[in-house]
Fold this sequence. Notes:
- With 547 residues, the chain is α/β, with parallel strands linked by helices.
- It contains 19 helices and 7 strands.
- The strands form 2 sheets. Strands 4-3-5-7-6 form a 5-stranded mixed sheet, with helices on one face. It has a two-stranded antiparallel ribbon with strand order 1-2.
Amino acid sequence: MYASFSCSPSKRWFHCAVALFCVIVCVGLSTVRDYGMSWDEPFRFKGGDSKLAYYQALFSGEAVNPSKDNYPGVFDLPLALAHECLPNLGTRSEKGHVWSFCFGLLGLLAAWRLTARIGGERAGFWALLLLVTVPRYYGHMFFNPKDIPLAATYLLGLWALVELFSKLPRPPWCAVLWVGCAAGLAMSARIAGLLILGYFALFVFLYLCVKYVAALRTERTVTRAEVVKDLGYWSIRGATSGVVALLVLSVFWPAIHTNPVERMEQTVATVQSYGWGGVVLMDGHFWQASDLPFYYIPYWLLYTIPESVLILIGLSLLFGGMSLLRYRRTGQWPSASELWPRLLLVFAVLFPLCYLLWKDPVLYDGMRHFLFVVPPMVCVAALGLEWMLRRAKAAGRQLLSVGLQGGVGLASLVVIIEMVSLHPYQYVYFNHISGGLPAAYMRDETDYWGVSHQEAAEWLNQYVEAIDPAGGRVFKVHQRYTRWMLQEALDPNRFEMWQSREGADFFVSITRFNLHSSYPEAKLLHVVERQGVPLCFIYTLSDEDPK
């Protein structure tokens, strides 16, 4: 006789999420080589080398001074160490892409488990699916050494804070230590990770204020001893998290070994007033990065986030605001352990965006600098969907629940089909509100990081083999933009990079800054394109027969 068992809905959703996560891992590992080198990678390679050299000298007993790199090295240092130990296991860029993919997976995992912690396993599944079908996030997962590590560790920090605040009023020490470790990793990605500790302090302060106000409203006396005890309790835990975060940061950022406070202050000041002097193509105009229109941030969010996610975020904020008004009207507030994680998540989305709008810093490269708010945005969207599903069930409208999930699933499938058509340039995605990628051509930045140079180089490799199979000639390639992305994939035995236009055989250019139109007399050989939109051009500059 066989034992019968049933699987609860919660476990079924968990198993679905596990299966989806495994599919993402398999697809990512099988396609990671398709992504070309991005513009910032060599700078991070140098940063990793300088940090590794510092530790090598330190452990050998030599007197060294840490580098003044403004970027912490949670991405750079492990990659440099891996390349040092395994120099023949692919190029450094290939290792970096796998490492970047690992951070992307960490962000997906954090989105899944954070949302499940607040809204249950069904909400966690939808958060995972919605985030992986945000093409801008998925595309950056494979080559962005700066913003994907921050996005992942920022969400990891939020997950740690959600766990801590879910166990109010007396969270265990393991939750406190987790916050410290997560904050340290986030700060080790970019100094903006300091926000995690700021959120910790702010929401503890608000929690105590609400606690005392509620006590006074019930005419309970709040004694000085109680306040001192609470402040001592949370100060010890906050200080512990801060110390742990600083210890983690110090491993990945040797620059703070001499004077951590001064170095961090200098870095924050540098980041806030970074003086990039380039221009940004947006809304059909070239804008100075230091003088962007006020709608820069909402423009990029509205045009690059899938419509289904935008709708769910709007509904989530609407229903969340209505719930707060209802709580205030009835006086029946949920417990702090239930309310605080939700408020934290929404605040972690809105505060950075509002701060950027207020400070008006130098921004460029589309939405790259605020990519880290996209994962918590998706978590908010998934929780809004879960709220609607629960309301539909409570109202006995099972068909509505099925329709909502079917609609979101279908919308995700449509985005997946578009991601396949863009592969491996998912990061240039524009939604249908914007008119899609074809409408964005020459209106907005597309392949600003030059990832399409790899495909252009592969085409050139095949082209010269066809016109010169004997291999007796070395061809000269001219570029007006940075060269390393193309050079990485060119056959070094057949090509050399050429500084001047004179004497060059080929000219290769992406569309950024309209550099592809630098030589109108050049003959077009090939265009790397997706959805009919050019991303990279290959021209011949020689008047002679290339054979």
